[in-house]
Write a structure and sequence with these properties.
The protein is of the alpha+beta class. The chain has helices at residues 26-42, 250-257, 263-269, 399-413, 419-426, 432-458, 464-475, 478-493, 511-535, 548-561, and strands at 54-58, 69-73, 85-90, 100-105, 112-116, 120-126, 132-141, 147-152, 155-158, 160-168, 181-189, 195-199, 201-204, 217-219, 222-226, 235-242, 278-284, 289-292, 320-322, 333-334, 337-338, 359-361, 367-370, 574-575, 580-581. It has 10 helices and 25 strands. Strands 3-4-5-6-17-18-22 form a 7-stranded antiparallel beta sheet, with helices on one face. Strands 7, 8, 9, 12, 16 and 19 form a 6-stranded mixed beta sheet that branches. Helix 6 crosses helix 7 (464-475), helix 6 packs antiparallel against helix 8 (478-493) and helix 8 (478-493) crosses helix 9. The protein is globular.
Length: 592
Amino acid sequence: AASAGSPAPGAQPSPLPGAFARRVPFAMLSRLDARMKRLQSRLGRHNPSGFGSNAWAVHADKTTDGFALMAGDGHLALTIPSYFYQAGLDTKALGGGDTTQLGLLIPGLPIMAVGTNGHVAWSQTQLFGDITDWYREELQLDSAGKPKATKFKGKWEPVKETVEDFKSLKIDSPLFPSKGGEESWARYATFDGRWIADIEGTKVKQDYAAKAGETVINLGGTFIVPKDTDNDGVITAISFDYTGLDPGNLLLGVDAFGHSKNVEEYRQATRHLVAYSQSLAVADSAGDILYTGYQAVPCRGYLKRNADGTWAEGADPSQLLDGTQYGGFTIPLKDGKVDESDNKKDPYRCVVPFDVYPQSLSPKRGFVVTANNDIGGATLDNSLTNDPYYVGGPWLAGFRAKRIDDELARLAKDKKANVAEMSKLQADVRSPLGALYTGFLRKAIADGKALSDKQKVDKGTMPAWELRAAGLYNSLTATVLADVDARLEQWEKAGFPALSGVETFYNKPDATEKQLAVATLVFNAWHGRFQDLVFNDEPMPGIWRFSGSTGRARTLKRLVQGIGKDNPSKLSSFNKDTGESIFFDRLGTKGV
């Protein structure tokens, strides 16, 4: 029998009958969000300045010496202990094996993350593929208040309970105190294997004395007594399915990288990859090159789409899916490799085909690039929903990839790529934001001066916004603004190098570099403040999909390019009275 507050089978329809009920208790979402942020922090993904990596390979036909080149830079944080260590493995010299490798490895795993075996060399960047689906569930409790079933296709399907035992040592350290001992906790999954991550209910302390009909559930260190807290007749839960929950053999695949004889063998080795989500740049001793980001990704053909290709209500894999209608996927494997034999038989056991996944083998242009950017042009038409398969996105804005691509195209054109040029490109400090916005800033200074001059002779006919702009210019020091403009002009002519001007054991800046360093400082101080003033006064939590910095960069670019009386960027936020986006108006100030 269902406990109090838990709907019986066939009773209590969803809050929005006939449609996906988006309602999820805010307290539950907040708990889950806080836990995900803690996990991100433990994984080193809490750096507010962002992160990213570069990797590229150049075909032998485009180099000065006729050998292929591979370059990579992981851009990982400097940590103690380090993520990676330089190492050499040679079982031919010691042990009579077949391994000769040089590169970087993760402590405890005798496989190269990036490096070379003399036949192939490879590096990688984060792909940002979408290999996890989240679901809104409707939960039924038993008489003891434990999860009993979840609703699926109108029926209550039994929940799977797994009890796990934990042993901890007694630690007296003030930093990591632990009483030690043994504990047993249950975790729950839906009938088809989706792990339940959070449950609607009341948060309690670990030693809470449960009453009759109550059970304390441990959800990642947060203790919950499940119940219908928002009184809508439904106990809501959130579950997830992740490709890594299926039994892949990641080490087998990565080990095969280090024993490949050429880029094609390396490409075939990626068939082992489940829950890897990396973009790979590879070169071999025959002069060929490869880009691939292949990993096992569910086809998701069971998710309904509208006529225009967009996701139907409750079927968007980048949002909460309707767990009462859509089940968990399975990544089928055979002999340790992703198996496509069920692709046409079972939509829930379908994987994106290997031969259609974005890859590039020795392209005519002579090089491949990956820098956390769009892996196959999926976003270039401004849509993530009109491709045959959804594999992830949106990706990072592409500033780094564009710069690398431009430079490699220049070098490849005249076959000038060599090790020295690769090192120079790795050390490149050109500011793409400087190139994008310096002209805008300089124009603002010039416009302010023009309006200030106009005010002196024609104040009576000037609209309010012109008077405000003139007043702002007049409140500043004209000589300082002229100096700023001159420094930015010098920076622009130099190609926007983001220089520090700081003397170190490896850098002796000359007078010109110090001058350009001032421009670098002025621009970046202005740009950060400008972006904050545009966005931070509007309450817009959660609108920046995937990467906040990328979303802001893309949006700000569109807003700046959308200035003009005829709404040149077709902005929905356009204000015809000011000729620009309403986001440029500071809330809380008088007037515009």
